Amino acid sequence: MIFEEKKFQFGIIGCGNIGTAIAGGLIKYGNIPAEKICASDIDIPKTEGFKRVFNIQILQQSTLAKNSRFIILAVKPKDIPQLCSEISSSVKNTSVIISVAAGITIESIHKFFGRKVPTIRIMPNLAIENGKGIIGYCWDGVDSNILKEVIEIFSRTSLCIPVKEQDMFLITAVAGSGPGFLFYFAEIIHRYLIGKNINEEISRKITATLFEGTGLMLALSEQTPSVLKEKVCSPGGTTLAGIEKMREKNIDRILTDAFDAALKRAIELSK
């Protein structure tokens, strides 16, 4: 594939949470200058916020599609069919579609465009904005050198894992939904501390540092989470007392069911 010269390297359609996270990650960690990114959204207040935060150009969808090498579809899955149809005539085969839509297969994207277009399907999470994201990806019809270029850029923002498309559902459930589950756990800790008369700011800092420090221990260790857990569970100690209570309440089954529910929903979105 030979690219014709495009004004923008990345065009992001959808200025919601994930579009914002991607833009932030590309600029702060992907080494993509803001002037090489453009964006579009039918929600005007969102585009105004995007422009204010990132100082990037806001365009109409068709103009963005004509002038961007990599077109990122960061709208809700339900909006993908109409979006693809609307920009189809503006997208040339010298551009690459990067879809973030959970559950929407590459085959479906081709169908919505009315033809095969070079497509990379990615499932990032919000931590991409801080250079600590996870991205599962698969592709079809993309030149190997172009794919390498895209993944090298995103690898500066996230752990990038190539997967079979059928495994994207699992990536969606774990990497995509996982931060929400962890935030929920953090919310419980934060609320518990406040309930014990620790002020809100200190409670937030304790919660954030707890997750940051524990995550760093896990990242730097070659040991499994199970081994690390046992290291802090002294016989008869406070940690073991809490772990035993969670086991009593079958927290393992609750969390497994939560991931299964997310996985089921990801599969439903593909139909």
Structure report:
There is one protein chain. The protein has helices at residues 17-28, 44-54, 61-67, 80-87, 106-113, 144-155, 168-176, 178-195, 200-220, 225-231, 238-248, 251-269; strands spanning 8-13, 37-40, 57-58, 68-73, 96-99, 119-123, 133-140, 158-162. The mean pLDDT is 94. It is of the alpha/beta class. The chain folds into two domains: 8-164, Rossmann fold, CATH 3.40.50.720; 178-269, ProC C-terminal domain-like (ProC C-terminal domain-like fold, Orthogonal Bundle), CATH 1.10.3730.
List the SSEs and their pairings.
Elements: E1 8-13, H1 17-28, E2 37-40, H2 44-54, E3 57-58, H3 61-67, E4 68-73, H4 80-87, E5 96-99, H5 106-113, E6 119-123, E7 133-140, H6 144-155, E8 158-162, H7 168-176, H8 178-195, H9 200-220, H10 225-231, H11 238-248, H12 251-269
Parallel strand pairs: 1-2, 1-4, 2-3, 4-5, 5-6, 7-8
Antiparallel strand pairs: 6-7
Q: Indicate the mean pLDDT.
A: 94
Category by helix and strand content: alpha/beta
| Span between termini | 31 Å
Portion of residues in helices? 40-55%
CATH class descriptor of the largest domain: Alpha Beta
Question: Low-confidence parts, pLDDT < 50 over ≥5 residues?
Answer: none
